[in-house]
């Protein structure tokens, strides 16, 4: 399907770069989690460029947010605090809040906001030089993946 925001390249393809004979499943699993964090940084930086505002705290949700490794790495790569809520499925919770507001169960957005609770906070621990070196490696890998499907023989029916 390609690569979405902020790249929007339907010719991009997933690549596994840098594997050796010593690469194990756990390395691929970690790489997948790291890719989530790097791509999140890409999106956060695009948002900052568009708005002129820097993200100071990232609130994470969804199933992947249950991973302490992912959220710590996210905090390290972004260089900002990442917070996991008590209720990680906030999309469903948001729909329930909207329904509750519609029928008068809650009377205001403020009342809904007061229900939100943090379960855990992750603060950056990574040295900024290491952060930028790792992120530069990610950006190099993304450049290799962009437009890739246009260049392979099978894309032309061979």
Q: If you had to describe this structure to a student in words, what would you say it looks like?
A:
- With 158 residues, this protein is mainly alpha-helical.
- It is built from five helices and three strands; from the N terminus they run αβαβααβα.
- A three-stranded mixed sheet has the order 1-2-3, with helices on one face.
- Strand 1, helix 2 and strand 2 form a beta-alpha-beta unit.
- Helix 1 packs across helix 2.
- The protein is globular, with a radius of gyration of 19 Å.
- The model has no long low-confidence stretch (mean pLDDT 92).
Task: Note the main attributes of this structure.
158 residues, mainly alpha, 3-stranded mixed β-sheet, 5 helices, 47% helix, 8% strand, globular
Please specify the SSE layout and strand pairing:
Blueprint: H1 25-51, E1 57-59, H2 68-78, E2 81-85, H3 90-102, H4 109-113, E3 118-122, H5 128-145
Parallel strand pairs: 1-2
Antiparallel strand pairs: 2-3
Helix pairs in contact: 1-2
TL;DR?
The chain has helices at residues 25-51, 68-78, 90-102, 109-113, 128-145; strands at 57-59, 81-85, 118-122. The protein has 158 residues and is mainly alpha-helical.
CA radius of gyration:
19 Å
Estimated helix fraction: 40-55%
Low-confidence stretches: none
Biggest sheet strand order reads 1-2-3
Please outline the major beta sheet: 3 strands, mixed
Average pLDDT score: 92
What structural class do helix, strand and pairing data support?
Answer: mainly alpha
How many E-type strands? 3
Query: From N to C, what is the helix and strand string?
Result: HEHEHHEH
Q: How much of the polypeptide forms β-strand, as a percent range?
A: 5-15%
The rounded distance between the terminal residues' Cα atoms is: 20 Å
Number of helical stretches of at least 4 residues: 5
Broad shape: globular
């Amino acid at each position: 399907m390609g690569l979405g925001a902020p790249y929007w390249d339907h010719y991009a393809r997933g690549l596994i770069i840098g594997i050796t004979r010593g690469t194990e499943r756990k390395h691929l699993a970690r790489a997948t989690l790291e890719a989530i964090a790097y791509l999140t940084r890409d999106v956060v930086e695009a948002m900052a460029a568009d708005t002129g505002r820097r993200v100071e705290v990232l609130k994470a949700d969804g199933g992947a947010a249950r991973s302490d490794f992912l959220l710590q790495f996210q905090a390290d790569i972004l260089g900002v605090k990442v917070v996991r809520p008590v209720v990680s499925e906030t999309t469903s919770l948001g729909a329930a809040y909207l329904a509750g507001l519609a029928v008068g169960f809650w009377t205001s957005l403020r009342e809904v906001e007061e229900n939100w609770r943090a379960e855990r906070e992750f603060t950056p621990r990574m040295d900024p030089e290491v952060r930028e070196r790792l992120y530069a490696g990610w950006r190099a890998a993304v450049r290799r993946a962009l437009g890739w499907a246009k260049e392979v023989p099978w894309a032309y029916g061979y």
